[in-house]
Write a structure and sequence with these properties.
By secondary structure, the protein is mainly alpha-helical. The chain has helices at about 5-35, 40-60, 65-85, 95-115, 140-165, 165-175, 180-185, 190-215, 225-235, 240-260, 260-265, 270-285; strands at about 135, 140. It has a single domain (about 5-125, about 145-285), classed as ABC transporter involved in vitamin B12 uptake, BtuC (Orthogonal Bundle), CATH 1.10.3470. It has twelve helices and two strands, in the order ααααββαααααααα. The protein has a two-stranded antiparallel sheet with strand order 1-2.
Amino acid sequence: MPDPTFFAFLVVDGALAGAIYALVALAFVVVYKASRVINFAVGEWTMVGSRMAAAAGHTLGIGLGGALGAACVAMIGLALFFNRVVLRPLFHRSLLSLIMVTIGVGIFMRGAATVVFAGLPLRIVSPFPVDPLVVSGLPVAVDKIAAAAIAAAAIAVLSWFFNGSRTGLALRAVASDQQVAISVGIDLHRHFALTWGLVGVLSVLAGTLWSFASGGGFGIELLGLKVFPIVILGGLDSLPGTIIAAFVVGILESLVTGYLDPLVGGGFSHVASYLVLIATLLVRPYGFLGRPDVERV
């Protein structure tokens, strides 16, 4: 019989990882909701954001808060430059063109990062205690708890932004119908720039939290491989669905790592989410909370 304590440990550990997965996945979803652009470089954005924070803390000699603030400013500037110089000329172009652009930008960011950040630390050292916190007999890493709590707070703020603010309402209108949004006076380019600015901030926060929680064991740029099953399972443009899918994938990967990887070989946990994705799409093609597009014919 499975050890219930070990099972509970895997579920808790997977849920904590799922909170950070959700934050990375939302960086993908906010772009798609506002502009219908599929950002295949979300992993590279997260990687650059975390290394910006590490570089700022090392070169400027400032604390964690200052390093995160400086990195957010730099990433917002990079996001606005990318939106203005790369994406705006492709406005109203085919979806394939936008997909190829994000893939190309991701490859460029990964290569440029090795040059720009050469000789600099890859991540910020975690400020949280090393000794685990024992809760009801379960040892849980303090840095994972703190990272999950910060990620949950950021998710709550982002959800309020989209559902409770005028700017969030405008972004939802843009996502629903760009022509109608233009007709009521919404500036598409300004709101697209705001969306990519949000991606810059989320990239810094998610990348730094993941480096705390993982200890640098899993390449941050490879987080994009974990994000795509999550956003499709959640419904692609659904914030609640993405959050639910992130926790499902996080717990699933943890259970597979604990029970199946020792039997079938390490690494199967990285494939498990894609198998669940295929099975889910056969039953529900639009994900957990996704809605089919309705077109008037």
